[in-house]
Amino acid sequence: MKFYKSHHFILSIMIIFPLVLIGCSEKNSSEELTLHVGNKYNLSSNYADNIENNFNFFSLIINIDNVNEAFYYSEGFITTNDDDYNVMLEEALRNLYNDQEAYLDKIFLINKEIRESILYLNDYLERAAETQSLEVKWDLLREKLKDLNTLLISNDSSHFSLYNLISYPEDWINKEDIYQVKLNEINSIVYAIKELSIAE
Questions:
Q1: In angstroms, what CA-CA distances link 132 with 12, 97, 121, 154, 194?
Q2: Rounded distance, CA 60 to CA 180, Å?
């Protein structure tokens, strides 16, 4: 058995653990979610934190050239992300913004696609670890990841980003002409990431 196969789980946890403490803290728990039900700000903030975690993940992957390290980090990120927690958050947000369900569903669908793209990217990185080389498509993938990150986080709350869209829903609900174009752009980039990640 190759080294990366027999030890990748332990190493991935070692790599991801400090960032999990910073990015997630104790937020991924149903107990805390129960405490926050009824508080729109906290629920939106928790969901936005998940988007920020994705942003941080892509930022790190973009700058990693060691294939083993990239794969271990990717494995650790997936292992420590709780999909059930995302589903609970989304359901709670729907209940609080029940008159804006269509608006929220667009955001949730995009976030689901982003999470799926991470699984595709993980498969790509696993193949790279097996061959000990990043494929030619890595440069294209890296550029797409950079493009995606510019639409996930913005330092200006008045600018579009997926983070701002869920953090300040009241500011965006009546601006569908703006955010729909941007969501389509994100979707296009995510699709490209998936396609580039598939083995030829």
A1: 17, 48, 16, 35, 21
A2: 28
b/e per residue, 71-107, with b = 16+ CB within 10 A? Answer: bbbbbbbbebbbeebbebbbebbeebbeeeeebbebb
- Residue 117 lies in domain: 3-197
Secondary structure (3-state) at 60: helix
Give the chain's domain count: 1
> Tens digit of pLDDT for each residue in 120-135?
999 999 999 998 887 7
Cα gap 155→55, rounded to integer Å: 13
The model's pTM: 0.80
Question: Both tokens of residue 66?
Answer: 């060691």
Distance CA(44)–CA(39), nearest Å, equals 9
List the structure tokens of 115.
Answer: 């999470």
From first CA to last CA, the distance across the chain in angstroms is 25
Amino acid at 72: Y
Q: Where are the alpha helices (DSSP H) in the chain?
A: 3-23, 30-36, 40-62, 67-79, 83-96, 101-131, 138-152, 162-167, 169-172, 176-197
Helix axes 40-62, 3-23, angle to 10 degrees: 140
- Exposed / middle / buried, residue 57 (Cβ in 10 Å: 0-12, 13-18, 19+): buried
Output the pLDDT for position 42: 82
Confidence class for position 38, pLDDT limits 50, 70, 90: low
